[in-house]
Specification:
Elements: E1 9-10, E2 24-25, H1 35-45, E3 50-54, E4 57-60, H2 61-77, E5 85-89, H3 94-105, E6 109-112, H4 119-129, E7 131-137, H5 141-147, E8 156-160, E9 172-174, H6 175-198, E10 205-210, E11 220-224, H7 225-243, E12 252-255, H8 262-275, E13 278-281, H9 288-295, E14 299-302, H10 304-319, H11 324-346, H12 352-373, E15 380-383, H13 390-398, E16 403-407, E17 417-418, E18 431-432, E19 437-440, E20 445-449, H14 461-467, E21 474-482, E22 488-493, E23 498-499, E24 505-506, H15 508-516, E25 522-528, E26 535-541, H16 545-551, H17 559-564, H18 566-581, E27 589-594, H19 614-620, H20 622-629, H21 634-637
Parallel strand pairs: 3-13, 5-6, 5-7, 7-8, 8-9, 12-13, 14-15, 15-16, 26-27
Antiparallel strand pairs: 1-2, 3-4, 10-11, 16-17, 17-18, 19-20, 20-21, 21-22, 23-24, 25-26
Helix pairs in contact: 1-2, 1-8, 2-3, 2-6, 4-5, 10-11, 11-12, 11-13, 15-18
Amino acid sequence: MPRSGDWPILPARHGHPFGQGGLAVVGNRHQRLTLLDLVDCNAIEHPDALALVDGEIRLSWSEYRAQARAIALVLLDLGVGRGDVVGLHMVNRAEHVLADVGAVMAGAIPCSYYNSLAAEQLAWVAADSAASVVVVDAVRLPLWLAIQEQLPRLRYLLVLDLDPDVVPPLGVERFEQWVAVASEQLGQRGPEIDYASYQMHPSDPLTIVYTSGTTGFPKGTVITHTAALWVMEQVNRQLVEHLGGPVPIGWSTVSYLPLAHVAERLFSHYQALARAITVTYVRDSAKLPQILPATRPNLFLGVPRVWERMYGAIRERAANQKSRFRRLLVNSAISVAREVGTARLTGKSARWWTRLRCPLMERVVYRRLRAGLGLDRVELAVSGAASLPAEVVAFFAGMGITIIEVYGMTETCAMLAHSPLDAPRLGSVGRALPGVDLWIAPDGEVLARGPNITPGYLNQPEATAEAIDAAGWLHTGDIGALDDDGYLRITGRKKELINTASGKTISPAGVEGALSSGSDLVGSVYVHGDDKPCLVALVTLDPGWAQWCAARDIRVRSIADAVADGRVRLEVARCIGAGNAALSRVEQVKNWALLPEEWTSEAGQLTPTLKLKRTVIAEWYRDEIEELYDPLTAESWADE
């Protein structure tokens, strides 16, 4: 067996080398670079710098590497070999990413599963990925025991925080006990880990990420070391240009979105390794509003709903000001921010009296708002996964937080295009990453080609061939357009386009966004109209409906009570009316129904990334949809 010293890793120079020439490595490894080189580099160059925070847990980079190596040794002792899959089913916590890196060190492929998966869905992804060992939170152990018989490849469940009084059943082991023993053996058995790590090649899978499954069971997408490191290099280049120098060691971010999603995995987990960033892990995302002001991150990723809720909270705060003066002040600040932000993002000029008020609002309002949100130090604010309403983007830009929209998908390791830090444009997801080719097919579909494209889907060669053609073009399924400056605008999903009976083709995403963005009370909206003369909508309340009602002294005990309340229905009607007013006549919904239930991924209407499962909704609510058309007469749409 080779010795650990046979392949020494030497930093090219002082300062973190990622994206600035790479690592100098000697021996048989030649000049190849994998994620493990970044872990080693941080431990060598920044051993005492803070790597992660998880409640009371605080690990330096040297401690991070040592614990990941201990987990790698545990996996090797449990029989995990090169190319085996190690499942991860945990909240965002230190052990999640340490086990992820430990699996790679053992030569295995980590695969995180969404915590919101139902038993049937979890059994599918665990069987499809053929996980041999799974690291799980104790709270999820009953779910795994219930599906264990459906997983013939599963040998061990490593459980965290298992009650000491519980006698583990066969095949269930206590994570902490195994890691403690392995930690004591690292000095003598380190070469075993080095040998397993040495087998890793840049073209090998770094992880398997399952798609959201909007049209069926999710597909396991292979993400290679090369793809992930290449994307991070592009982001680093943009940051260096923006800052005028390298990213400072010790910058911070928070990890609260599911690590089963490629965007969170890249933005917090991998980026932390690439730039020695300190990550605070948020086990309960509901606590994010309290954690952000305490951490004050330099980088922050939010899906559109997060940014919308922040914006909604600010508007709610303005509405609830007891002082009439303060209420007018905050409302005026919101209005000024929207106008100034719109002007900045469209290259136009705000009205002169708005420009005069902006410096005052910065001193009196915006500075406090940024501090209250915990985003007063943010240098890179990102939104992805879906389009962000223009009003929200403009407001944050006007109050001093420029949100960079990113376009990508699981198959592209999260990124294909992004808004330039110095020149974002309203309504656009920016320009292609250098090295990525974008092409708009004759039918409007966005096609992409580049080094970050997945080599394929796990166990699905037919699906791979359908997604990636013989010339290497990935068919994204998105409909879009490129302007003369190379900025990309996404207008809808190819498979989701509605073809009405009158011959109109409509993208539902834009309609649904317009209908839901006018009120914090409105949650998911589903628009229907295939082979119908007009559009109708199913509307649900936002998960924060109870707080919205309580703030207005609307006393309800259930969502059914809320839906039946006249003031709630009036607010929803106002929101739908405002959305219709912003749409063309053919896009306007002619009828809608407010449902007395919440749509969730657990209930089955949404994917784990909160996208609509359109075929499921259309089937489940077939009767409700048909009832919406019953009162509509021919005159209702005769002018369409």
